[in-house]
Specification:
By secondary structure, this protein is of the alpha/beta class. The protein has one domain: HybD-like (Rossmann fold, 3-Layer(aba) Sandwich), CATH 3.40.50. Helix content is about 30%, strand content about 25%. It has three helices and five strands. The chain has a five-stranded mixed sheet with strand order 2-1-3-5-4. Helix 1 links the parallel strand 1 and strand 2. The longest helix is centred in the last third of the chain and has 20 residues. The chain starts with a strand and ends with a helix.
Length: about 140
């Protein structure tokens, strides 16, 4: 089973890229796949990772290359470990600590965003990046 987990703030323009990707893919009803969205990663989300073989985290990023960057995520304690919002690596670390087992295989898809101001809608450039990212996730899903 796979978990597609998109996060971001839909009220902040391109920050909604992660949640928008998941909502679009959820319409396709991908086989053996569960979709989840939230504003940010929290400690409580460690429980949401139970029972999955693979996890794909999806987020907007102002600093990554366009249209997106796709990478492997490994469990790691980082500075977000004690903060309110976590990185995917820190969430995997918490999962391992809480459940005393290795974290599922995980990946991070960072979609390039440009405008994150409160009240903005999705920018045109981010919309193009979103379409490319959706194609990437569909390809990844078929390969795994």
């Amino acid at each position: 089973m796979r978990l597609l987990f998109g996060y971001g703030n839909p009220g902040r323009g391109d920050d909604a890229l992660g949640t928008m990707l998941i909502e679009r893919l959820e319409q396709h009803r991908l086989v053996d796949t569960v979709c989840l969205v939230d504003m940010q990663l929290l400690i409580e989300h460690a429980a949401d990772l139970i029972g999955f073989d693979q996890i794909l985290f999806v987020d907007a990023d102002v600093a990554c290359a366009a249209p997106y960057e796709f990478s492997v995520v490994t469990a790691q304690q980082d500075e977000s470990y004690t903060s309110h919002a976590l990185t995917p690596a820190a969430l995997l670390f918490i999962y391992q600590q809480a459940y005393r087992r290795p974290a599922p295989t995980a990946f991070l898809l960072r979609i390039r965003g440009y405008a994150f101001e409160l009240g903005n809608s999705l920018s045109e450039r981010a919309q193009h990046n979103l379409e490319a990212a959706i194609a990437k996730v569909q390809q990844w899903h078929m390969e795994h």
